[in-house]
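Residues determine shape. Next comes a sample protein:
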Amino acid sequence: MKIAISSSGKDLESFIDPRFGRCSYFIIVDTDTLSYELLPNSTVEALHGAGIQAAQLIVSKGVNAVLTGNIGPNALNAFSAAGIDVYTGASGIIKDVLERFKRGELSSSVKPTVGGHFVQGGRGMGRGRRSWT
């Protein structure tokens, strides 16, 4: 089975990135052999539509499932239309999460876990006020 995982790093020892559309990398793993392909996320800096663009990229790779921390409605709809299962709430080191997946310990998502335009970790998207005093 071929699985796409949102990753903060470049290998199976990396942590899962909780953000799907704005993760640093995707790791495409063959669950039988644990061979993998590293795919830099070209949509990470997109002003709009990062989730849907990332989903389209992953769909084009022919995966059967996606493991991530959170996913928005547009990306989830794209995967649903393509017949790809999405497993959210994943956290920790990728190789450990893969083992939990293989043991059937993860549940697939039928609803988005975040709204559209979700950004974690701050990127200047707050409503802070400048003090002039």
Remarks:
- Residues 117-133 have pLDDT under 50 and may be disordered.
- The CA atoms of residues 122 and 128 lie 11 Å apart.
- The domain at 2-102 is CATH 3.30.420.130 (Nucleotidyltransferase; domain 5).
